[in-house]
């Protein structure tokens, strides 16, 4: 297996594998790659955390000998995705150990090397995650609201007309209300990672958006600048 700690541009479902076991890594890669998955390998929790912001992982497979589930679950990326504990080949797994893994934060434990069972478990978890994480169609933060079905934005029930890009920027900010987004994150989420755009262009759009939704655009109360980092939508 060609091991990588760098998430590549790829087609398929991005999966993170955390293990130092080369045999385990080879088995996972051999099983998942032909079935439409792309596996990025991290030998440690530190590497896994460094990869998380740069790859849209849908699932994490963790060698259960690495006692790192608590550390990973503190990261916002790993709070959102299913995580499976992998039992090493040839090592027995007791019922008590499985219960402890589930209580620690794993969604499932795979202690078999029957490939059809692996795929069935993974597909079931991904389906469940997709249903649970279906994006809301309406957002409301204080007096600011957005309805995606009607493509409508209101401030204090007053309708606001936005350009398509202003609408997308506001949607991203509402989806991540209270969280600071870097300028690059906003550019990627609104224009796409392959689109070349100067950060100054984003600032221009933010300025125009403030003119429409803020009572005092020069002293905004909702779309806040975090100096040296980016922007956030205040959820207070």
Keywords:
Arc Repressor Mutant, subunit A; Rossmann fold; 9 helices; disordered N terminus; elongated; five-stranded parallel β-sheet; 2 domains; four-stranded antiparallel β-sheet; 236 residues; alpha/beta
Main pleated-sheet profile: 5 strands, parallel
CATH level 3 topology of the largest domain: Rossmann fold
**Strand order in space, largest sheet:** 2-1-3-4-5
Helix-strand pattern = EHEHEHHEHEHEEEEHEHHEE
Q: Percentage of helical residues? A: 25-40%
Strands, total number:
12
Report the CATH C-level class of the largest domain: Alpha Beta
What would you report as the Rg, rounded to the nearest angstrom?
21 Å
* Uncertain spans: 1-10
The assigned CATH architecture of the largest domain is: 3-Layer(aba) Sandwich
Please report which band the strand proportion falls in: under 5%, 5-15%, 15-25%, 25-35%, 35-45% or over 45%. 15-25%
Total domain units:
2
Would you tell me the structural class of the helices and strands? alpha/beta
CATH superfamily of the largest domain: Response regulator
| Overall geometric form | elongated
Number of helices: 9
What is the average per-residue confidence, as pLDDT, rounded to a whole number?
85
Distance between the ends: 49 Å
């Amino acid at each position: 297996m060609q091991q990588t700690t760098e998430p590549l541009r790829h087609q398929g479902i991005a999966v993170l594998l955390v293990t130092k076991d080369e045999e385990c890594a080879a088995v996972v890669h051999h099983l998942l790659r032909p079935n439409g998955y792309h596996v990025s390998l991290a030998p440690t929790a530190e590497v896994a955390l460094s990869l998380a912001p740069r790859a849209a992982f849908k699932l994490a497979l963790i060698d259960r000998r690495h006692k790192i589930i608590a550390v990973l679950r503190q990261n916002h990326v790993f709070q959102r995705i299913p995580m499976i504990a992998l039992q090493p080949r040839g090592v027995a797994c007791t019922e008590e150990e499985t219960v402890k893994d589930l209580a620690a934060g794993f969604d499932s434990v795979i202690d078999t090397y029957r490939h059809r069972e692996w795929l069935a478990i993974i597909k079931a978890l991904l389906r469940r995650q997709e249903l649970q994480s279906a994006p809301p169609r309406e957002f409301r933060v204080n007096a600011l609201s957005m309805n995606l079905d009607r493509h409508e934005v209101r401030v204090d029930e007053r309708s606001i007309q936005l350009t398509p890009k202003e609408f997308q920027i506001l949607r991203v900010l509402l989806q991540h209300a209270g969280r600071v987004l870097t300028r690059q994150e906003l550019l990627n989420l609104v224009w796409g990672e392959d689109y070349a755009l100067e950060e100054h262009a984003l600032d221009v759009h933010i300025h125009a958006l403030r003119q429409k939704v803020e009572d005092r655009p020069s002293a905004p109360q909702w779309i806040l600048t975090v100096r040296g980092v980016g922007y956030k939508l205040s959820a207070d």
